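Quick one, T. Sequence first:
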Amino acid sequence: PPLRWAALCVAPAVAARPCLEAAARKRGDAMSGAPHEDGALVLYQHPPAWGLPTTCPRCLAAHALLRWGGLGSFQTDSGGNSAVSPTASLPALEDGEAFVGSFEGVRHHLRETRGRDLDAWLGDGARAQLAAFNALTEAQLCTATESALWLDQDNYQAVTKPVFVAAHAWFIGWRMADRRRHAARTARPAGATDESLLARGSEALQALSSQLKGPYLFGEQPTSLDATLLGQLLVHLYCPLPHHPLRDVIAELPNLVAFARRGAAECFGELPEPIVDGANGTAGAGNSAKGPRERPAKRTYTPAEQAFHETSRWYMIGIAVATTAFSVLSWQFTQDHYDFIQDQIATQLETQIDRLAEEAAEEDEE
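Structure tokens:
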């Protein structure tokens, strides 16, 4: 019976998931209100906030890949639903019939299909350095960033979780935020502490700052590593986390701050002032790193976003109604079935007793 109850309660939600994913895929970009055009280049990303086009460092890096790769004409879907991605992670890129997920998947697709490889101009020695710095950035800086955003309880409750809750209807945002946090927890190295992650992230930032001697990490042209670093830095410079020691480390490296401001202007145009000023590493005018913050004004939803939220709301109502109906009907069915089984058992016992009594009587007569 417990398994039956669990199956009946979960079945409606499981049945509704393909519908929710299909709605997310077809609704177009709810944040901009623009429907997807057939065959268009579409970048799926997490919701925007803090003056950035997306809150995800890897999604920002995918933006940079496209912009620096000369593919500035593309659409974005800021729904933040990683379930639509082939790898169950964002960013994801839809290019005609092709659909790839993750930053590495986007980079590989642009190189193999579009012929846009930011690393093609590098020599063998520079490529070896690039691979080493990529490994350092992924293992130390990216892990520290995810921990600061999603695993620090104060940061999660005050900043990152509310972004997802505000961007989606009902508890869908809560579920998506929890999914992001679970992914960050899974990727965290075993035995790592907040202090060790901070130290490793700081080490990576120091190494990247030493490598940055020109406009970009390897000279006069950007590479895929520049895109990764840009996404990481922008989140640290703009995200108003209450506990953010990595931002203090970046503030002491003005060449990284200047690189981030320059890259942001090239890839995203005009952005608000960051928390850290590029000239002297102090708090900027746009987002003060200290002191009380005003509650942000409630965002006005576009018609497309309102329609998506309304559709999501009705899906959730339908799931609740279906679950309740299944529960009531299954209880009634279980009760009726139980009574039927009890009657069958009682009848069989009476028949068995009568047969035994007859056999005993026949033996007495003999």
